What does this fold into?
Amino acid sequence: MQLFPCPFCGPRNEREFHYVAEPGKTRPDTTGDITAEDWAAYLYDTKNEKGPVREVWMHLTCRELFVMERDSVTMDVLGSKTLRRTLPAEGAA
Amino acid sequence: MSGRRLSQGGLIDRSRLLRFRFDGRDFTGHPGDTLASALLASGVRVMGRSFKYHRPRGLWGAWFDDPNAVFNVRLRGDELPNCPATTTALVDGMQARAVNAWPNAENDLKGGLDLFHRWLGAGFYYKTFMWPDWHLFEPSIRKMAGLGAVDGKAIDGYVADQLHDDCDLLVAGGGAAGLAAARAAAEAGYSVVLADDHPTLGGSLYQGDEPIEGEEPQAWVAAQVAAIRAAGGRILTSTTVFGLYDHGLAALAEDRGFARAPRLWRLRARRTLVATGAMDRPITFADNDRPGVMSLQGAAEFLGRYGVLAGQRIAVLSNNSHSAPIVARLRAAGAEVIEADPAEGAPRALGGKRLSGVQIGARKIDCDTLLVSGGLTPTVHLWRHAGGKLDWSAEKAAFVPGAGPDHMLAAGAANGTFDLDPALAEARAAALGTPHATGASGYRVRPLWPQPGSKGRQWIDFQHDVTLKDVELAARENYVSVEHLKRYTTLGMAADQGKTANMAGLAAMAAIQGRPIPEVGTTTFRPPFVPVPMELYHGTRRGQAVNPLKRLELEPQHRAAGAAMGEYGGWLRPAWYGPEDQSAITAEVQAARQAAGVFDGSPLGKIEVMGPDAAAFVNFIYYNTIATLEPGHIRYGFMLRENGLIFDDGVIARLAEDRFLISCSSSHVAGVEAMLESWRQDGNDPDRIFVHDTTQHWATITVTGPQARAIVAALDTGADPATLAHMTLTEGRFGDSPLRIARVSFTGDASFELSVPASRAADLWQAVLAAGTPLGARPIGLEAMSVLRAEKGFIMVGKDTDGETMPHDLGFDVPRRKKKAAFVGDRALQTEAANAADRRQLVGLRVADSGTVLPTGAHIVTGDGPQRSIGFVTSSYFSPTLDRPIALALLESGQQRIGDRVQLRHLGQSLSATVTAPCALDPEGERLNA
Amino acid sequence: MNKTYSALNLFREGLRGQRGWAPAWRSPKPKPAYDVIVIGGGGHGLATAYYLAKVHGVRNVAVLEKGWIGGGNSGRNTTVVRSDYYYPESAALYDMSVRLYEGLSRELNYNIMLSQRGMMILAHSEAEMEIAARQVNAMQINGIDSQLLDTEGVRKLAPILNFDRGARYPIHGAMYQGRGGTARHDAVVWGFARGADRLGVDIIQNCEVTDVIVEGGRVTGVATTRGEIRADRIGAAVAGHSSVLAHMAGYRLPIHSYALQAFVSEPLKPVLDTVVLSPGHGTYVSQSDKGGLVFGGGLDRIPSYGQRGNLPVQETVIGGLSEMVPMFSKVKLLRHWAGIVDVTPDSSPIIGPSGVEGLYLNCGWGTGGFKAIPVGGYMLAHILATGRHHDLSRPFDLSRFTRGRLIDEGAASGIAH
It folds into this structure.
């Protein structure tokens, strides 16, 4: 049972989390022309790195997406941070 | 004479007698005994048979390291298979039977197999049984294999408690080092859990007579226990730390007695100290498996813990300094002990079922018991579970813990510190995190490893009958990697997972190849440390709690109305109302078509999307254009995955300019919400869109049929259903509560979805039925609803779609061609596959009016040449409305085949049907406004 | 030295202490160059080398294995062999594999202990029975032996299952393939290794590929921990690490790596004669010839290269097994472990060109690679030898993702309401 750090809720049981994607992929502008190859690369290609990785996860209980850095071999968690540019509280301030 | 009980000593209660049976004979023992110690005390030598050759076997060890004595044990009607005799506490009335032996271990009919051993070496089965076929031989080989039989009876109340806990320091092992560490840490203010698998703490302290820090062992242990408890530490006895997992999680099994499920502790430990001691290694020599050849440490344990002397005339064969105090203790207890040096010559055990002596070179020693110690092997399993490395210590001739993760510590014999005082110092330092220099070791050992090429049958894995010759054969055939050795010979794969065998095995391979031992390396240490019942993991995740169904607010009302409840997409819902399905479904369909059906639609998803960017957002989420939807209006649409495949369908209502209500499939609510959140937070400004699942807040009752309008009108809602157009919604009141009325239809008849806060569901249900019953309305279940929608050709996602279906396959092609704005899955609708002419499209199928209903799952096949599936029946019912069978299917180029006659196949049977449009009832939609 | 395995030779060798057996395979030093290099000494890689030599006469072949042969998923799986697949492309591929398996012991002169004890996938509701019927019909049309069993049919084959109608996942019936079953996983690896070695293939263990040498868009060799080795045709059969190799060679794959756990119990006398899978519990089980219950379940849903499992999935799988067969709750678990599997978006394998000329792939088998070892090797050998797809492997080309021609066995069912 791994402990993952939700940036909002703190360390929680791995069962509460869902892996979403590798970060950094931008959805192509589909109102323009996109080759089949570019679309397939966006849809399917992965880095799937061995060792330190950055991944987007969802904490299912608070529904926030965040970026987690961990090691895909040792399972050590190196850190996590929110995807948001500004936290709601900071935005309000 | 072999083993006997001494009149004093040990941790047993001689004042009470426990009776038990073993292999049909009666025996007695005392509280504090194990089955093994009681049998040993009674002079029993042969306690088992080996797996392959059915060699007679006696005890090797006194605890988890014994591979030989494995029993099926029954107590008051409850039987457990494969209980190790050495770790099964004796209970009055136990009936034990050695596994893999018939009629008993002493006289096993299959004992003759040993005569054929020369043909049954490692991997013999890979070289034969190929002709004519393995199947011919397999059944008899299967019967020969296996250990105990499992009876078909589940044990009443055999349910594992599962606890979660945490601590600063987990100490695995309650011997001297573990106790010292736990006390030091507890007194320093750490929260400490100490776990030991024995019922009595003290580890190996009872093996010798020496005082520890000036006290008798029992007194010292008692003092440590008292101090640990006083400082707030917790002590778990009869508890095995059986696995270490990621992020400091330890799994502990707490024994709660025979035929009671152990308790599982999931303990999150900030630090874990491995203080699990060390095991005596066997010495590899000819016939070293004879009953009466026992581990020196095991004999010391039997003496110290159970007051049992393993033999009367005892030869001791040891290569290390650890044996001296034990020999002294055995002599003091009255045994005649003859010490021998294995360097004198190659030993050979003499005798058959009873050891009669040992030959060492030219010297022959008559003895009834031969105690051997080939050196100590630290118990490093937990260290390895946690990813710690092992170093080879040439000085100690053992693998000892090397570099490890920060949270892992090791101390005492488990760490290769075999001397008592240094072990105590090391343990205390480890517990407090203070620096500690290891002093010189007093432990002396002469390396003594298997000698390749030496004579006789020399056992390496006792339970699995792997001998030195097998290791030599594996090497000869190039199975030299330690993993190949294990897999080819099965060395280390027995119930004891190689606790006694692995070191000898890899040392033998090293010797054969002339490589250093560390270069050969070890196999992987994996949990569980000792076998644990599967029940431990099962716990309360049993019966309906495995995956609990969601329950309806109106379940009591449905049950009162005679509903047959069934699972639909994770919800327990009314399938139909009445004792028998077909007539009930027919009546419900007829009522819905002729008067009105009342349907509990509460589980249907109700996800609100709101905010200034909500309109653009849902327009992106949906395949269909939603941006143009007017407030108060409703549209049917699809949500796709980015790969263009249909994820869900349903209606979306625009409640206000900046507020939408998404109605998704009841089983997809969580998935749809997660999908919405993903897009909301990734690619949008999450402060301008808000997603809120209100599914459980609202109960929804759907009224459908010609009388639906009249029924809704009869409710005092403040809204006029007559003015409510199809695909619009309005708000009204139900008493003091808000009421949402949506006019949508899944049946083709005028339908109203009435939603109220869930707490008002029962009142609304009652009110609707009160208004509807005089008009002929009745509750309808899921099955009737399935028929009603199928008559109209309306799909159910997942039933009438599969893992290839795109919206244009269902006739919804406009957005694919015309929608300008980007939407999820858009580009994927333009691939080669998406544009293919032979896509499977939704059609109807018609059979003769008097014909039988097509089986759902029947395939449509091409008639010519070898058959090929071109589609399949997705939904198929008898339509009470049309009084004939109806069916929906996905069919290759289906739209072009309308009117064609097609062949179908179902479980070898041939059928035929005519392709039609999906909608069989009222294609013009007149009933909607009737 | 004795090279042929037979009862007679076993008898003769028994008389002289089994001293005459030849090594099952040699351990040669790597040559500087080969006609073909196969990366990965698991079942798929060794089968590739065997069929290259046997079917295509290409014998100047090296199999490079970073550890010991069969040390990846070939030695970590639950040994199930079956071809009960839905789509014709999958059915054809996996059924050829079962047919190759059926002749393998005699072809390789190595008893792989193929035990066609039958494989059933339970249906827990009438809706699941309809889906099972759809699948059985598809299989029968595709020529796969498949039957639909009712509850009594299931009871006859596996009376120890939980037939309580009130169970969370009651048994309504099953989809059954009689030719499904198990084989001894290590024996498959060793048999192919021995067969390939006898045809001249060099099996090189402890030889880790550290880089793929690409010159002018073509592959020309590999750098390894045992030096540079050249070949202008390279096959990659490195399940679990396909993305790592892709990274070396400069291409990307649609693959995620996940841990898949497996479990074995203490040995019991025979109680279960078939392989049983419960989709509700996500657990499947068979009993090995040795007597252990060999079982497993779904993936650990955390991308991973760590070859070990985690408690949550263990609880689901073991708890599920105890629900499927209540008497197993008192049976003891002996060992659990995990392998790293390649998971593709459609749960189907990738066979064919990688995008780098001369480098061909055999990967993406997900949780089902063992059953496909013979055919996976056969297909990769074909494309390495001829430069062209075999008809059966063409649908599994990497280009299917660009064309949208996915073969999604996983998504073929699943009802929403």
